[in-house]
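FAQ
Q: What does a multi-component entry look like?
A: The components come first, one per line:
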Amino acid sequence: AQRVTQPEKLLSVFKGAPVELKCNYSYSGSPELFWYVQYSRQRLQLLLRHISRESIKGFTADLNKGETSFHLKKPFAQEEDSAMYYCALRGASNYGGSQGNLIFGKGTKLSVKP
Amino acid sequence: DAGITQSPRHKVTETGTPVTLRCHQTENHRYMYWYRQDPGHGLRLIHYSYGVKDTDKGEVSDGYSVSRSKTEDFLLTLESATSSQTSVYFCAISEGREANNEQFFGPGTRLTVL
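Then the predicted structure of the entire assembly, as tokens:
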């Protein structure tokens, strides 16, 4: 079964500290992995997708197929990074007729203290 | 924001009443989705559409129906609202004509069922 696990509900760090938000997935195949961010009471926005290998707002994430992980990292957290972060997985477009649907983890709330 | 709007943005209703939420997009995207967001559950797919009059169930479709009579509108109906359907509902689209393109989300509708 396809599943995304974000083990931390809440992660609290001080400004300037490194941040790592964990994401593990379960999928038999080659999934696409994403990180979405939701600032307070706003819509979700795509932060990263593993196939683009970009660095957005200082965040990076590497897909580790051996460990089935896609952890999100930032070397120096900023107060404006405080938000809800969701890891998501998308399997093959026609997997079970799912038409490329996203499966989300339960989210991690990041709080960056001054 | 990929031209996605949702209406209403907030709604309070009573148990047993029907409720319809509207998602509207202006850019002719083929795929549209309805998710619900709940603390401790993240986002879960309710229904999705892959074209006019083409819809399918997601993970948590019980108690919900959808309709898509034209490309730009995707309606979510709660036939008889229950308190367990109190949630924030997000509409999303896959950009363009492919399911595997980036998903963009609407601003959300906060529904309270008393």
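Q: Is there any commentary attached?
A: Sometimes. For this entry: The mean pLDDT of chain B is 93.
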